[in-house]
Amino acid sequence: MLSKATTMKDYKLECLELASDENRVKPVTLSYILKKMLTLGVMSVPFDKLLQKYTTADSKFIEINGTKVHYCDQGKGPVIVLLHGMLSSLQTWNEWVKSLSGNYRIIRLDMPGFGLTKHFESRFYNRDLNIDFLNRFFEALGLEKFDIVGNSIGGYFAWNYTVAYPEKINKLILIDAVGYPQALPWIVNFVNIPGFGNLASRITPRIFIEKSIKEIYGDKSKVTNDLVDLYHDMLMNSQNRGVYVDVFRLLKQECSSTMLSYGINKIKASTLLMWGKNDPWVPVEVVKEWERDLPLSKTIVYDGIGHLPMEEIPLQSAYDAHAFLVS
User: How do 298-302 and 146-151 pair as beta strands?
Assistant: First the structure.
């Protein structure tokens, strides 16, 4: 994944620099070569290895229409569903679960093609397919009425689900959610250039993942090596390699459509808008459009925070979500 300021020339140069590693003093061994291939984003990470590294005692799997879904079902109380955003996984909600599972039954899942959930067999992605998938997943878990929270494209699916199935949603929380036509992140435009999408699906250097995460964090010091490893590992998942390119093509298509926001003004559920003021991917300026179409919604804007408030300020954002849900 490339940062907004990165050019194709920079992309090629950095790949060459990483590959040559002129300052290397270690002997060339097989393990060294394999490590470098993983860092360069050339070699996929075996799915079984990711299972060992990222599943916990709370991990569950269920098959929905031929797609094996990884999810967690934790806590007791009213049900909250959490939907992650672009290039992410259910781990994005780890700190929220620690804060909220004493009061809620929290269900979070890896969306098809991300985390440890396999992609749709067709590798075809659109809004309706994802909404139908979510409904089948919720029905399989016996969910009848619940609150739903979504970040980024997860927010896009959350509000669209609320429009499609209003009788099932109590309250809606949108965190830096996609909803209105906007300028897209550079990486989305990059993979939509003919030929470059195939390149990006085959070569995903770790350094670009790190740059992109730092771009969307307001506080760059919170971007740890473990966090970068998580995002990079999941993108290198052998069973989903390159799926994010298909999703970015969906984003390119839908974010340029005047129909993108169709249905927002039909939402009846109480809605909380949570936004990082420094979000470069879904800029805070779009909040005024949400407030126009949802005049009864509540808005919280976090100074100095980027695209992922639930990761950057988990305690504050979880507290604000809880206060809204019990109000």
Answer: unpaired
Angle, helices 206-216/8-20, rounded to nearest 10 degrees:
130
Strand 169-175 relative to strand 146-151, pairing = parallel
Domain boundary assignment for the chain: 8-326
CATH of domain 8-326: 3.40.50.1820
Angle at 160 between CA 155 and CA 163, to 5 degrees: 130
Q: What is the pLDDT of residues 173-184, one digit of tens each?
A: 999 999 998 888
Residue 200 has pLDDT above 50, yes or no: yes
Cα distances (Å, whole numbers) of residue 301 to 184, 220, 247, 327: 21, 19, 27, 19
Structure tokens belonging to residue 303: 């100074």
Query: In this structure, are strands 105-109 and 67-74 parallel, antiparallel, or unpaired?
Result: antiparallel
Residue 61 in this model has a pLDDT that exceeds 80: yes
Which whole-number Å values give the CA distances from 150 to 122, 156, 193, in the listed order? 24, 7, 28
DSSP 23: T
d(CA 283, CA 279): 5
- Residue 83 corresponds to which amino acid? L
In SS3 terms, 102-146 reads as: CCCEEEEECCCCCCCCCCCCCCCCCHHHHHHHHHHHHHHCCCCCE
Task: Give the model confidence (pLDDT) of 102-137 as tens digits.
Answer: 999 999 999 999 999 999 887 677 889 999 999 999
Mean of pLDDT values over 1-24: 46
Count of CB atoms within 10 A of residue 198's CB? 12
Reference 115, options 156, 59, 162; nearest CA is 59
